[in-house]
Write a structure and sequence with these properties.
This protein has 274 residues and is α/β, with parallel strands linked by helices. The protein contains nine helices and seven strands, in the order ααβαβαββαβααβααβ. A seven-stranded mixed sheet has the order 3-2-1-4-5-7-6, with helices on both faces. Strand 1, helix 3 and strand 2 form a beta-alpha-beta unit. 35% of the residues are buried.
Length: 274
């Protein structure tokens, strides 16, 4: 005898929400490790080192592409007096970053705005200079993003850009590369040094310097973790915090392994807008 079909619920359980990419505990770990407003090594000191060639002062307007939580944007504004606008393609990060600028009462001097990576719209010819920090390696349509960045800078303005680039292929590193990408939570859209430099030049930049700063970032990462571990020894964290620490440690370890192997490189370009 056939069984009756199960009755459909009139009030089915709602689908669970997707996991939050930037939970509060994760942001606390990142802030404790890298400094408030920063998502990676170097902090304010590295930001100001990278921006030094720009010679910023209070008369300048600056675009900071890849603003993250706004640490670099606020550091630039505080150190130079320049008017700095940060653009971030992750809307949740952009909102949190602007909240931090408001918390520190610099929401006008160091404003952070969301930017649609599929249709980047930035005011043309408005900014004196630009600083773009690892803003491109997650972007599939690099020409459009670079065109928006370059177009936002006045003619003869300076652009300092850092980004990850692919090193020589290595079959042994491909599994490690995939594991790192999964921990980053994005699909990397990477190119090699020559391809990236050619793309920047094609979109209107006169490249003056292309420098490999991989070893500097490795040293900054290792140094930050050494200090952080000493702090953890003095003040044992709660379990949710500790789990996030382990998660961030694995992401950093896999990235450093790829940097040390040469499969990933971190490059710095200094260019002039034609």
């Amino acid at each position: 005898m056939p069984q009756p079909a199960p009755r459909r619920r009139l009030d089915p359980e709602p689908a669970p929400p997707p996991p939050e990419r930037w939970p509060e505990t994760k942001l606390k770990v990142l802030g404790a490790l890298w400094g408030e407003g920063f998502l990676g090594p170097g902090g304010a000191e590295e930001t100001l080192t990278l921006a030094k060639p720009l010679g910023l002062n209070q008369t300048h307007s600056v675009i900071n592409l890849g603003a993250g939580l706004g640490g670099a944007t606020r550091a630039l504004a505080a150190a130079s007096g320049a008017w700095v606008t940060g653009y971030e393609t992750d809307p949740d990060l952009a909102e949190a970053a602007q909240a931090l600028s408001e918390k520190h009462k610099v929401e006008k001097k160091a404003e952070i705005r969301p930017l649609d990576p599929a249709n980047p719209q930035i005011r043309k010819g408005y900014y004196h200079h630009a600083l773009a920090l690892e803003a491109l390696w997650r972007i599939a349509d690099k020409p459009a993003m670079i065109a928006a960045l370059v177009g936002a800078v006045k003619p003869h303005g300076q652009v300092v850009l850092t980004d990850l680039a692919l090193g020589p292929p290595s079959p042994a590193a491909e599994r490690a590369f995939a594991a790192w990408a999964k921990l980053e939570g994005v699909t990397p859209c990477l190119a090699g040094e020559k391809a990236m430099t050619a793309l920047l030049a094609k979109e209107g930049l006169d490249i003056r310097i292309c420098e490999d700063i991989t070893s500097r970032q490795i040293a900054q990462t290792v140094g930050a973790w050494a200090s952080f571990v000493e702090e953890l020894k003095r003040d044992r964290p709660a379990r949710p915090f500790a789990l996030r620490v382990v998660e961030e440690a694995e992401r950093c370890m896999r990235r450093i392994d790829l940097l040390r192997s040469g499969r990933l490189r971190l490059l710095r370009w200094h260019a002039i807008r034609r």
